[in-house]
Q: What sequence folds into this?
């Protein structure tokens, strides 16, 4: 599981466990999550900071902020973190802060952030469009399209794949060529 976390952390430019002490690493991750909670508190008038923290924790697949802090405190060594990576892998989106030149997001970060937005909708009991807008603002974008980019429409009346033949070293090979929307869906599925 740690190998998957490293792939995700690399794609999302998260701090590396190998570059700092375990406590510095965890404190940095937790401070990024706290920053998201403070932003959420500012974006939603009337929500308490405690509720905001709990919402960020729930969107990160933790029961609440107290449980999140307990999990962070249980880790004392890099080996502890590696053994408990499954507890932390879903915190990646809450720790992610894309730079302006990284928007729209690449495939893997986009999938992770979209999952976070869906979980935020559930945690706050709000509709998906509002949760996606909040997520975009939490990530520093003005709207979801700026953050994630356009998603090609899957055409109903058109073929998802077209048959074509390629000649490679004198041999003909048949294959299916996906339309742009199907290609994007394939990339997201792989991510």
A:
């Amino acid at each position: 599981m740690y190998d998957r976390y490293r792939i995700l952390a690399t794609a999302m430019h998260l701090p590396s466990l190998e570059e700092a002490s375990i406590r510095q690493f965890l404190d940095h991750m937790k401070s990024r999550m706290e920053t998201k909670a403070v932003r959420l508190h500012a974006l939603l008038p009337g929500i308490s900071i405690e509720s905001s923290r709990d919402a960020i924790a729930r969107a990160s697949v933790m029961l609440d902020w107290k449980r999140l802090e307990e999990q962070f405190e249980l880790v004392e060594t890099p080996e502890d973190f590696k053994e408990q990576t499954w507890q932390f892998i879903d915190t990646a989106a809450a720790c992610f802060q894309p730079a302006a030149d990284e928007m729209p997001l690449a495939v893997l970060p986009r999938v992770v952030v979209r999952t976070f937005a869906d979980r935020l909708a559930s945690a706050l009991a709000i509709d998906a469009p509002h949760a996606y807008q909040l997520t975009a603002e939490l990530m520093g974008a003005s709207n979801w399209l700026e953050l994630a980019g356009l998603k090609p429409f899957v055409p109903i009346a058109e073929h998802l794949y077209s048959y074509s033949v390629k000649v490679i070293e004198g041999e003909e090979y048949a294959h299916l060529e996906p339309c742009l929307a199907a290609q994007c869906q394939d990339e997201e599925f792989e991510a």
Remarks:
- The first helix runs from residue 2 to 11.
- Residues 104 and 149 are 5 Å apart (CA to CA).
